[in-house]
Amino acid sequence: MSLPSFDDVCRAQDRIAPWIHRTPVLTSETFDAMSCAQLFFKCENFQKAGAFKSRGAVNAVFGLSETEAKRGVATHSSGNHGMALARAAACRGIDCTVVMPETAPQPKIDAVRGYGGQIVFCEPRNAARQETLDAVIADSGANFVPPYDDARVIAGQGSCAKELLEDVPDLDIVIAPVGGGGLISGTALSARALSPATRVIAAEPANADDAKRSREAGERLVEDAPNTIADGLKASLGELTWQFVATEIDDILLADEAEIVEAMRLTWQRMKIIIEPSCAVPLAAILRHRDVFADKRVGVILTGGNVDLQRLPWA
C-alpha cells in the first residue's frame, strides 16, 4: 500500500466528521510554569470511544465499498483501536472481530463488547496477535483494518493534528506519543502541509523505545513484548509508519515508567481530566526534557482516557 498524502487527510476529515468529535484544546498555567513553555493540549481523551483511534477506524470502515463491508472487519488491538473499530463497525451496521491480548485492561475489553464487537484472546506478544488474527480472517473473510500501518488509518489520525494546527496557529512544536506510529505519521503529514516550520517530536516509553533505536540504527527494529505501563505503545513501527518516522520526525524523546505515572497523576490532579498512561508520555517527555521546550508554543496530543479505575498505577 502506498503512503497517504495530505489530500487523503483532508478527505478523511470530511468523511469522518459526522461520526467523531472535533475535540477541544485546553491549557494549564501549572504545566506552563513547570515546563517553561506554552502548552496546548488537544484532548482526544474526549473523543468518541475515548481515544484518537476513532478517527482512523471510522475513515477505514466508511471507506469500504458495500461489497467489502458485508464481510465485516477484524483487527488486533490492546484496546483503543479495537474499541474504535467496534464502534465504527456498529455505526455502519457491520460485524467486527478484535484479537486482544489476555492482559488487555478490563474496561477496554468491556467496551469492545459493549459496541457489539466479538473478541478472540491471544498471548500478549505481537507475533501471537498476528497469528491469531490471520486465523480469524482465514475463517471469516473479514477485512483487516490495521491499528496503525494502513494509509486509511494514518490519514484519519492526521485529522487530529490538522484540527490542532487550525485551532492554534504558529506552534513551534507538536508532540505526540509513538507506538505503532499511525498517529505520529498522520501528525507529520498535517504539520508539513499546514505549518512546515513546526517541529514534530515523538514521545516514547524508555521501556519500549524501538522507534528511537530504529532511527539510530537506520532500520526498522521490532520488539515483541516490551514491558511498559503504557499499554497502547507496545506495538512496533510498521513498514508504512517507519517511513514517516525515519524521514519526517524531528526527534524522539523518552520518558521512564515513574515519569509517565507522575505525568498521568498530575494531569488528573491539575487539569481535572482523565488520561491513560500512554496519553501521559508526551507530558512526561516534556517535563524530562524542559530545555527542548522552554519558551516554545507546544501542541500536545492527549491520545486517550480509557483507564481501568480499579488498577490505577499510583494506588
Layout of strands and helices, then pairs:
Blueprint: H1 6-16, E1 25-26, H2 29-35, E2 38-43, H3 53-62, H4 66-69, E3 73-76, H5 80-92, E4 96-101, H6 106-114, E5 118-122, H7 126-140, E6 143-144, H8 151-167, E7 173-177, H9 182-194, E8 199-205, H10 210-217, H11 239-247, E9 251-255, H12 257-271, H13 277-288, H14 290-293, E10 297-302
Helix pairs in contact: 1-3, 1-8, 3-5, 3-8, 5-6, 8-9, 12-13
Keywords: Pyridoxal phosphate
Protein name: Serine racemase
Domain Tryptophan synthase beta chain-like PALP: 18-304
How many helices in DSSP terms?
Answer: 14
Spans where pLDDT lies below 50 across 5 or more residues = none
Number of domains: 2
Basic shape: globular
Order of helices and strands: HEHEHHEHEHEHEHEHEHHEHHHE
Radius of gyration: 18 Å
Strand order of the largest sheet: 1-2-10-7-8-9
| Helix vs. strand class | alpha/beta
Number of strands: 10
The biggest beta sheet, please? 6 strands, mixed
Beta-strand content: 15-25%
What's the CATH first level of the largest domain?
Answer: Alpha Beta
* Amino-to-carboxy terminus distance: 44 Å
Give me the CATH fold name of the largest domain. Rossmann fold
Average pLDDT figure: 96
> From the coordinates shown, what is the CATH architecture of the largest domain?
3-Layer(aba) Sandwich
Helix content: 40-55%
